[in-house]
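FAQ
Q: What does a multi-component entry look like?
A: The components come first, one per line:
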Amino acid sequence: MNFVLDPKEFRLLDGLRMNPRKSFSGRVRGERLTRKKGVSIEFADYREYSEGDDLRHLDWNVLARLDVPVMRTYQDEEDLAVHLLLDVSPSMSFGEPTKSELARKCALGLGYVALMGGDTVYPRTLSRVTPRTLPLRGRASFPKLAAWSQASSDTSDSFSKSLRAFANSSARTGVVALISDGLDPEATTAIRILAGRGHEILFLQVLSSVDLDPDLEGDLRLVDAEGGAPVEVTANGSVIREYRKRLAAHNAALVDAILRVGGRHHLITSSWELSSVVNDVWKRGGWIR
Amino acid sequence: MNLQSPSSLLLLAPLAGAIILLYLLKMKRRDVAVPATFLWPARTEEVRANSLFQKLHLSWLLALQLAALSLLVLAFARPQSLQTGLIGETTVLVIDSSASMQATDVKPSRFAEAKRIALEAIRSAQPTDRVALIEAGPSPRVIFPLSSDPLKQETALESVQPTDAEVDVGPALRLAGALVGSIEGARIVLISDGDFEPVSDFSPGQAAVVYKPIGESGDNLAISALGVAETLSGRQLYCGVKSHSSKPFNGTLTLYGDGKLLDSRTFQIAPHGSFGADIPASSQTKVFEAKLDCPDYLKSDNYAACVTDSGASLRVLLISRGDLFLERALTLDPRVTLDRANTLPSDIGDRYDIVIFDGVAERPVKSRGVLTLGVAGPPSPVTIRGNSKSPKFLDSEDVKALHGVDLKNLFMDSVQIAVPTARGRVIANSTAGPLIVQSDSPSQRQLYVGFAPLESDFPLQVAFPIFISNALDYLAGATGTSLFSVKAGVPFGVIGTSTATLTSPAGTRTLIPSNGGSLVVRDAKTVGVYKLDVDGKQKTVYATLNSERASKIAPVDKVLLGKSTVAAIKRQDRFADFWRPLVVLCLLILAAEWWLYARRS
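Then the predicted structure of the entire assembly, as tokens:
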């Protein structure tokens, strides 16, 4: 399966930048302005000279005219850490097209935007054994990102467990782009924990028609695709209604948790096109600009 | 509540056990993978089972199925409840329409009360009850067969009319028995005053017989006798009145001769006493009538008539080893009073107007006429020379005895070869010789027929009753009477080739069709004077009750019906089946169970 973006989608994404609400400190010089004063070419302000200052930033013109030593200060430019957390668990393989297909494309698109914006991209899959991936920077890293996005599905831990593991890691604080179906009873708790580490969460929830409108009937033993406890049900109108009610409540709790920590959330279905996601979610929602 | 088949309840345990066993079976469910199971409610409705055991869970389906099964088993047990009313699931109402039912001790009359009770019973019947109505009249009549249509039944009931006839309810009860005797739980309800002869040869089968009595009093006077006797002082008309009451009565007896008042007497009669009157009677008077005026409850026996016209009454002795065809042809004639014997009694004297020897050798008698069928004797107008097998009819003379009688296709198995005596006149011949010979002397008329009716197909032919009637006319020496005295309700026959008209005392006209040259009159059911127009001739028929049994109108508490005595019911209680509502309820529960099942699966 090839999830590489087509030229039209590249054109759609070109020129866009990640638009976090928060400001994060960078590790390497990048193209993103920070609140720290630095040595970039972006002028910020003047300040009085103090002993020991780098004379290279002394404004000689002001000294000559006013005989007052004034130092020029500059806005520093640093990179942004963009953590791409892609859910590749078995639950993502439901739907037609599958949730995983759109999720991988979205991760690739978002990663492309970040790379093009000079940000550092940390791609991760929410799986039991998280392969250590090197941070990706610059346009030249896109092929690596594309190869990562096509990684095979793995038997993952639960969504919440994976998020907790990520939150407890020493990952740089930054934007966490979470692309998952979010079908985990502990998802809200994990999100709160993740937000507590200072990350800004962008949660793109991908659900399929199987999740939203299950076509089940009769006496069934429902087997959890991710190893949860099986449930015996008699799928009828009443049970289906109850399921929908519970799903709506779960999603509402997710949205509430994310909004409370200053994150962003949007629910899409697996039938969406990437262009719709870019235009209707990311651009309109201010995820990128 | 009563159970007709309580052993059926034993089915409940195994059947309920079988149903519960099915619920103990665990359901085998199909595995379906879903993205996440935590959103699904663990709600199972176990409506199908196809695997081995599990713990029994409370289920509405199980409860409903057990309830439906309980109702079904209870319905199989045929529960009955005690209800008020005459009608059962299958009921035949037998209404007595005899003369005594016209008594007015119950207002307006016993018969009207009987119809009211029958009507009430029909209206109280359940939609599923089947009811039939039989009128126990002079001849039993099914008013309506077993049906569940109250409107038609009510309409048919309205058509039932009382009679002044003495009735034997036996045929009606036997008819009812034939109708429902094989139906378990059926009822035969006899609505009557019980004033009838005990019924023999009756078996209700599986049906129950219920006797609903009508009547309160037996106060009644009746004209018990009216006749003419030749005495030393001349011809006398005598009339007797009898009391069937337990209290004294005052009354007035009026006698008429040919419609003219002859005498009227006021009398007082003691309880169960009698009163008699006799007056000189003119020999020219042909009809005497008596009318009784008193405050009793039955009016139909307060009238009597006596026809003294010669030929109007014939006392006939039939000496035969048994010939129902001949007996029927004789009894159809209203003039005939028939006695039967196997051999000639030794001392009959001149008590009989006509003696008939049927297959029995003729012997000398003093009657006015002798009819010999098949076996001639010394007095016969023929001498016998032997027997001939299967002769053919040749010819006949046009004499009164053979008027309207066609013998052309007559089959005779065996005929006596006869030679007429000097006084004998051959009026019909066969290939074996003289077939019918008549003899007319001043003291006696004789008619000889060379074969017995049962040795031929003569009784099956139209000509047979005509020949018998002609023979009676010839032997009695009468030219045909126009006056009859009959018992009300008793069918009688007259000779006639076209449709006759019977005009009742109330002026109602009834057309009576001719069947094979004779007419059977069945509609003279009430007491009074009828006019019968036959072939352009006017005949007068006097219908009277003339039955001491019918005049005893005291209601009877117990009646003998077949081999058992049936007591009058005091209350109109009955056991009514209610298995049908149980079955309906069972079906409703099953429908609810199905709905629940469909909703859950």
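Q: Is there any commentary attached?
A: Sometimes. For this entry: The interface with chain B takes residues 91, 94, 181, 183-185, 208, 210-211, 214, 216, 218-226, 228-234, 236-239, 242-243, 246-247, 250 of chain A (CB under 8 Å).
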